[in-house]
Design brief:
One of its GO terms (molecular function) is GTP binding. InterPro entries: P-loop_NTPase, Small_GTPase_ARF/SAR. By secondary structure, the chain is α/β, with parallel strands linked by helices. The protein has a domain at 39-135: Rossmann fold. It has helices spanning 55-66, 91-98, 100-106, 124-134, and strands at 9-15, 19-25, 43-48, 76-81, 111-115. The N and C termini lie far apart (35 Å).
Length: 139
Amino acid sequence: PVPVPQVGTNLTDLRLPRRVTVRELGGCMGPIWPSYYSECSALLFVVDASNPAQVSSSCIQLLSVLSAAPLASVPVLVLFNKIDLPCYMSLVEMKSLFRMQDIVSCASQPITTLETSARDGTGLAAVLQWLRSALKEPC
């Protein structure tokens, strides 16, 4: 089935080994994101790497999130997702379009980028490892 953008909010619990709650907020929920910043310990920002029409909007949303005072020291993982699709843009292309080097050099928080495919699981082990590290969880 064709994936559809996330609308609304979903909660998922992970064991890393302690229980961590992940709150997923779709892009259209951007106006209410700030109401969740104070309870955020780590941030995963997911970008659709197969949709070049959304790159500029995603970049603006990322810059808005990074400039929020409550997130000034929260570690950030930018995930370029849907790399399983034939039309995806590579990590190099996405970093260039987002000007990630400039963003990372100006941001107050640590930023990491990864490629993933939620559909086939590519990169998900690295995401969990990043979460453990960002949350200071033992491996």
